[in-house]
Amino acid sequence: MTIETKAKPPTTMTAAPPRPLSARERFERIYRILRDRICLLVYAPGSRLSEEELAQEFEISRTPVRRVLARLESEGLVQSVHGVGTIVTDVDIEELQQVYHLRLELALLVGKLSPIPRTADDLDRIRALIARCDADILNPDQRAFLRLNMDFFYELTAMTGNQPLREISERLYFQVARVVLKLMPQLGLVEEFTAFRREMEEVLAAAEIGDWESIGHIRRAHISMSFRRMMRHAGEANLDKAAQSAP
């Protein structure tokens, strides 16, 4: 006698609903979105940021929007003007020089203060950024370059366990990032992509053998060269303007 058994339907695993973001996480998310928009010149210098429009976009009240804008103002990215509102700031060239000089000194500390060994996955992410650079350089785009630069910056700051250093480095980086984008037409995209790729390759080679101190020196050298290129082209642009305005 055969006994027929009915096959049980396969059990389906239902994915748990995503955990709702905490108030702190929502704040950080909105802050990073607005900061990126400012640095990528989606919000150009002089643009007015409306609390009401931002609150509607992110579906929150105006109170957390004010807190985000206050943080951006403390970092010099926006300015609250009485009777006008919150305005995206521009970068003063003298302030830029001071920021770059400080970044040069901080770069050396990445390999000295609580360096964090890189895992295979960490190194693979840097290799993926190099591959992305190779693809982007075939059809160079200003914002694509800066996004790539930002992603590599996060990989660099992850190499130190010193939280104050990471926070200060991040704040200074985003103060100057948009300057790179503004000057990109004068700097030359292919030249910048090529120099940036070289930096990533050098950092990867040092990270593969755990030479953290060399990474700081590599980073410092490339920040210095980038700054000199920007100052050279900024000076040339000022000379052109003066020539055009001359009678």
H/I helix tally = 9
- Straight-line N-to-C gap: 110 Å
Q: Which of globular, elongated, flat, extended, rod-shaped describes the shape?
A: globular
What's the total number of strands? 3
Which value, in Å, is the CA radius of gyration?
A: 23 Å
**What percentage of amino acids are in beta strands?**
under 5%
On the 0-100 scale, what is the average pLDDT?
85
What does this structure look like?
The chain has 9 helices and 3 strands. The model is unreliable at 1-7 and 239-247 (pLDDT under 50). 67% of the residues lie in helices and 4% in strands. The chain has a 3-stranded antiparallel sheet with strand order 1-3-2. Helix 2 crosses helix 3 (62-74), helix 6 packs antiparallel against helix 7 and helix 7 packs parallel to helix 9. Strand 2 and strand 3 (85-88) form a beta hairpin. The chain has helices at residues 23-39, 51-58, 62-74, 93-107, 120-136, 142-157, 163-187, 189-208, 212-245, and strands at 48-49, 78-81, 85-88. The termini are far apart. The longest helix is centred in the last third of the chain and has 34 residues, at 212-245. With 247 residues, it is mainly alpha-helical.
